[in-house]
Write a structure and sequence with these properties.
With about 300 residues, the chain is α/β, with parallel strands linked by helices. The protein has helices at about 130-135, 155-170, 185-195, 215-220, 240-255, 260-265, 275, 285-290, 295-305, and strands spanning about 65, 70-85, 85-95, 105-110, 145-150, 175-185, 205, 225-230, 265-270. The chain has a single domain (about 65-305), classed as Alpha/Beta hydrolase fold, catalytic domain (Rossmann fold, 3-Layer(aba) Sandwich). It is built from nine helices and nine strands. The longest helix is centred in the middle third of the chain and has 17 residues, at about 155-170. This is Prolyl oligopeptidase family serine peptidase. One of its GO terms (biological process) is proteolysis. One of its GO terms (molecular function) is serine-type peptidase activity.
């Protein structure tokens, strides 16, 4: 496989947080284009690739840093991976002080339709997305990866898997703590990716989306799933979230899980209009579904899971 990574570095810093069942905390609205997220690269700083199979050609920004091994840290934007499934446009975040001697948990998170890849004019559209940034603001150090894929079907699911495997191979990742997240179209993609390779992911946050993947493989591998959908989601409607929950629940039962054990790995949250209003959202509940990425209790629930050794 030929990998070519070409990118220009962008860094942004922002502020975030994560729930337990149908009552998460925190306030927020749909993701916003933050004025704080401004790219200001310096010129002429070329950094070597983190692997021998690819190359980063990028400049250091105000908040990115380099370790002794010359691996760039911070937010590294608008990269390209040429893989078996085609060209993958992505950005990623490495925590300050990243070291190959430490294994880091990793989140692979996919945005909705308006932040997908539609050509150069759309490059970096996901960089201000709360579903990307929130994981970078947690107290614990995480590697965070977000791609701008070209559809929400099998091709993109395969690309999400390939990107996950690329980071597992070329970065120091704790394989027991690899997490997935997806919003809207990104959720359709990641529900397929998680069901195709449930062995890769310890837990998955399925936000404001329909489930397009299979159910049995997820239960058989014990992958934890948190489903979030507004009661009045204008695009999908909440019934699709209930259906996904019920089908996953049945799959866990068939796999021999008890009620108590299922409750520990499967959660459904369908907040009503009052819940959203308390967070300043009174319309566009589908877009407002991005608020899940500001719910500390949700993020913490997802990140509490580890992949068990088989």
């Amino acid at each position: 496989m030929l990998f070519l990574l070409i990118g220009s570095v962008s860094l942004l810093l922002f502020g975030c947080s994560s729930p337990r069942y149908a009552r998460a905390q925190e306030d927020s609205s749909a993701p916003e284009q933050s004025a704080d997220a401004v790219v200001s690269p310096e010129q002429g700083t070329d950094l070597p690739a983190p692997s021998e199979n690819g190359a980063h050609s990028s400049a250091a920004s105000d908040v990115s840093q380099e370790t002794d091994s010359q691996v760039q840290t911070g937010l590294i934007a608008e990269q390209i991976l040429e893989g078996e499934t085609g060209t993958i446009h992505y950005s990623y975040y490495l925590p300050e002080g990243y070291s190959d001697e430490t294994e880091y948990p990793m989140v692979v998170t996919m945005p909705g339709y308006d932040m997908m890849w539609f050509g150069e004019q759309s490059s970096g559209a996901n960089l201000n997305w709360e579903g990307f940034l929130c994981w970078t603001r947690l107290p614990e150090d995480f590697i965070v990866v977000s791609a701008q894929l070209t559809d929400w079907r099998e091709t993109s699911a395969n690309q999400a898997i390939e990107l996950t495997e690329y980071f597992l191979e070329h970065f120091s990742v704790d394989r027991a703590r690899v997490y997935a997240a997806g919003y809207s179209a990104g959720g359709e993609t990641m529900s397929q990716a998680v069901s195709m390779r449930p062995d890769l992911y310890a837990a998955y946050l399925h936000g404001a989306s329909q489930w397009d993947g299979a159910y049995e493989p997820v239960a058989q591998n014990g992958t934890a799933v948190y489903i979030f959908m507004a009661e009045h989601d204008e695009y999908y409607g909440s019934e699709r979230a209930r259906t996904a929950y019920e089908n996953l629940y049945d799959a866990y039962v068939q796999a021999g899980w008890t009620q108590e054990d299922i409750d520990s790995v499967l959660q459904l949250q369908i907040p009503d209009g009052e819940w959203f209003a308390s967070r300043g959202i009174t319309e566009n509940y589908h877009g407002g579904g991005n608020v899940v990425f500001k719910e500390e209790s949700v993020l913490n629930w997802v990140l509490s899971h580890r992949k068990q050794e088989s």
